[in-house]
Amino acid sequence: MINKSISKLQLSIENNTYSESDIKLIIQYLDSGKLRVAEKKGEIWKVNTWVKEGIMKYFGVCTINESKIGDIIFRDKLPLKQNFKNVRIVPGGNAIRFGSYLAENVIMMPPSYVNIGAFIGENTMIDSNVLVGSCAQIGANVHLSAAVQIGGVLEPINASPVIIEDNVFVGAGAIVVEGVIIKNNAVIAPGVILSASTKIIETDKKGIVINTFYGVIPPNAIVVPGARTRGEIIIQTPIIIGYRDTKTNVKVQLSDFLRNF
After folding, report:
1. Beta-carbon neighbour count of residue 86 at 10 Å?
2. Which tens digit of pLDDT belongs to each residue from 27-57?
């Protein structure tokens, strides 16, 4: 029944025959995890553009309302999220917008923020001062360290959101924006900045460049901040310095790679 309902909603958006109740149902399905902005088909991520369009239309059917937590009053077009199952949200300033999904056993430290359309897989850790932007897709067993910024992508409608697959470690202060995909088991060191146009280089043990990537981090890759020269200037350039053995502790292995780099 859910699949038939989703197919009907998709047609209503694509044919411009939607009702206000259709738009609200799309957001309810996002909030419950029954619907996602992007889905993995084999090894390819497919963006459900009609879902993003539904989110944009949702703002048009909402009015300003008040939500209260303790003595703090919030005024927004979207209510705060209420639908949680076995999620630990530590007090101290967290905010999670309705229309986002947090799977079981997610832990969220304060103060952090999750925007509409985001999906966060089970057992993921969201540390303090983390932003998970609109429509970002975060996998299971991911660690988003303190002050990590995950960009949101609502417009343009066909643009891919930031996608972080399962078992990824993202170090403190890292920034991931513009639809970058970080594949399974990758390790992103503190301070790395990744965007769609960022050149990512892979080096061998002697520091010789052996590969170049844009917009994607391969599975198991260990990425650290770096730089390259261009004439008289220096440009920040993330560097893949090796690949993770998934049986080894992430922090220990990152430390070992940095020590020998």
Report:
1. 10
2. 999 999 999 999 999 989 999 999 999 999 9
Higher pLDDT, 257 or 89: 89
How distant is the alpha carbon of residue 115 from its chain centre? Answer: 10
User: What is the DSSP pairing of strand 143-144 with strand 125-126?
Assistant: parallel
The pTM (predicted TM-score) of the whole model is 0.93
Q: What is the chain's mean pLDDT, rounded?
A: 92
Contact assessment for residue 108 and residue 94, using Cβ atoms and an 8 Å cutoff: yes
Range 77-245 has CATH code 2.40.50.140: no
List strands edge to edge, sheet with 119-120. Answer: 101-102, 119-120, 137-138, 163-164, 181-182, 216-217
Backbone angles phi, psi at 238, to 5 degrees: -60, 145
Question: What are the structural domain ranges in the chain?
Answer: 77-245
Strands 131-132 and 113-114, by their bridges, are parallel
Sequence-ordered list of residues with C-beta below 8 angstroms from that of 231, at least 6 positions apart, any chain: none
Which one is predicted more confidently, 258 or 128?
Answer: 128
Amino acid at 225: P
> Which tens digit of pLDDT belongs to each residue from 134-148?
999 999 999 999 999
In single-letter form, the type of residue at position 143 comes to: H
Grouping H, G, I as helix, E, B as strand and the rest as coil, residue 94 is coil
Q: State the DSSP string of 143-164.
A: EE-TT-EE----SSTTSPPPEE
Q: Alpha-carbon distance 131 to 101, whole Å?
A: 14
**SS3 (DSSP) at 60:** helix
